[in-house]
């Protein structure tokens, strides 16, 4: 009987450890995604360059481009991601790959015009060693009432 209880306690402990690790990893990705929005607002291309994978791609309402063009757009202010207000976030982990969905209101300056737009942004990350690299970022225009299903 003691052996059965002890086995159950150890199993419960290891299950909780696994859940805690996953939750911690999800929190890391959420923080990284939120930091990315701030770096985009600050036009901090040094931090973004380190985050974006060399083959990363970006899908916007007006086109699709690769890392170097995205960094140039941010650096030159062709699009200024002035402020991203994150309203909802969901994360799914698939081994070394993660998808982060953010529902945001984006205040931006595009071609010298102020634009406030509702988006769901899909970000794909891959764990590389100890850190995460952004592989893809896609903006999807949505209604203000859109919700991300958990």
UniProtKB/TrEMBL annotation:
Keywords: Signal
Signal peptide start and end residues: 1-20
Domain called DUF4440: residue spans: 31-134
InterPro entries: DUF4440 (IPR027843), NTF2-like_dom_sf (IPR032710)
Gene3D superfamilies: 3.10.450.50
Native source species: Aquirufa ecclesiirivi
Listed name of the protein: Nuclear transport factor 2 family protein
